[in-house]
Amino acid sequence: MVRAGGLVVFPTETVYGLGANALDAAAVKGIFTAKGRPANNPVIVHVADVDRVREVAASWPDSAALLADRFWPGPLTLVLPRCERLPDAVTAGGPTVAVRIPAHPVALALLHAASLPIAAPSANRSTELSPTRAEHVLRGLDGRIDVLLDGGQTAGGIESTVLDLTAQPPRLLRPGLIGVAALEAIVGPVMRERALTVAAPNESQPPRSPGLMPRHYAPRTPLECVEGNGAARVASLLAEGRRVGWVTFSDSPNPYPEVMARRLPSDPAGYAARLYAVLHELDVAGLDRIVVTLPPHGDEWLAVRDRLQRAADAN
Ligand code: AMP
Ligand code: MG
Prior knowledge:
Layout (H helix, E strand, L loop, with lengths): L7 E4 L4 E6 L3 H11 L8 E3 L15 H10 L4 E6 L6 H4 L4 E5 L4 H10 L3 E2 L14 H8 L5 E2 L12 E4 L6 E4 L5 H8 L35 E4 L4 H9 L4 E6 L10 E5 L3 H16 L5 E5 L8 H12 L2
Parallel strand pairs: 1-7, 3-5, 4-8, 10-13, 11-12, 11-13
Antiparallel strand pairs: 1-2, 2-6, 3-6, 4-5, 8-9
């Protein structure tokens, strides 16, 4: 199916991907059409092993070799100079390509069977929540894909860390399951400030990283984040007669039986693993608003806070 130019949804260890042959421009354009994704938003290329990186990237710096050795297969995406033969649709016409080896047996089996690099962004409509279960994929993409490989709930729950190795020092484009400290232990200092200005879809320059767009990863139900406990905000929404969902921590009590409360683990990995599944669940519950008690500041919560703030920025 991938070899024939089709669209195949597959599980990875992060979220489900919407895949197509990365060397087939028409197939890659099909990804953008299915997602409603702006053409200036490049997609990640998945490969089966390190040797196949050379099919899509023009160079393989020592830092890439060290990181790949430590973290691949795994949720780390490396941005490298692109190969000329790669269709422009993959890179949004830019000079770089983002590549990783996923750590999921189904994804790896697909990559080996297709024997091709597979371009695959998350299998959701543009700006919406990423899918961590097959039913989430169908919410947005039913009728728009050729095959869906159902691998159950994905383990990681949020998207890969994206690190730009064409910048000096390397630049964190998207925080993810692999933390900055783990990267810095291998490649030294990483630039981590959030790039705040991002090109609008009609501007000619592609954004440095579309994951940095403020509106992203968002449920359809309006979502707001609160620092601190959040109970006061929930109470005031209830007083206005709103139907409220509340994402909070496993150790917080819920004094409001009428609220649809979901308690997540207090460790970052456990929280990330369940976050999108909980947001999808609340999103289909017919609520007026979802309130999220933010986790603490600090590097270990960077990726989770990033996703939550983007989900809220959409409103
Ligand atoms: P998605 O898989 O839908 O989360 O989107 C792919 C992500 O990959 C985007 O958010 C970008 O951050 C990143 N990306 C893909 N290609 C590039 C590239 N050439 N340069 C920088 N970031 C990229
Ligand atoms: Mg995405």
